[in-house]
Amino acid sequence: MTRDRIEHDGTVVAVDKDYISVEILNKSACAACHAKAVCGASDAAVKVVEVAQDISTLAADYQVGERVNVVMSSAMGTQAIWIAYVIPLIVLLASILAFSLCGAGELTMGLGTLGIVALYYLGVFFFRNKISKIFIFSIEKQPK
Q1: Cα(144)–Cα(13) distance, integer angstroms
Q2: Helix (H) or strand (E) holding 125
Q3: Total domains present in the chain
């Protein structure tokens, strides 16, 4: 794996005319630890990524069950971190400051701040199709 891209091992689970669905195992940092069976703190989640068919994927002719690498630019990973974590943190802190300057009580400040952050995530949800066009995944066959 190079610094300018993010790779995950995956398995093709479905192929249709528009998308190739690839199942990846998303592991936490401690999932690779040798003591994970005893610890219980490790977690892993199975995610399905849909990769749009293009000339390169059509030429490769992927089959269900085939092992592949799912590849994404590391810059896109940074954008995802901003959308999911940094911007909501800024919204949260700004709303706390705004409620505090307005002299709101703690309950009003807490509920109002949670509501504003919830509105942010609701906006992300409603614009998910537009946002998903920013994040482009590609796949590569794994060497045998």
Answers
A1: 19
A2: helix 106-126
A3: 1
pLDDT number for residue 28: 57
Task: Give 87's pLDDT tier (boundaries 50, 70, 90).
Answer: very high
Confidence bin at 55 (pLDDT 50/70/90)? low
Range(s) of the domain holding residue 108: 5-141
Residues in the chain, overall count: 144
Whole-model pTM?
Answer: 0.67
3-state secondary structure 80-123: HHHHHHHHHHHHHHHHHHHHHHCCCCHHHHHHHHHHHHHHHHHH
Q: Is 132 exposed, middle or buried (0-12, 13-18, 19+ CB in 10 A)?
A: exposed
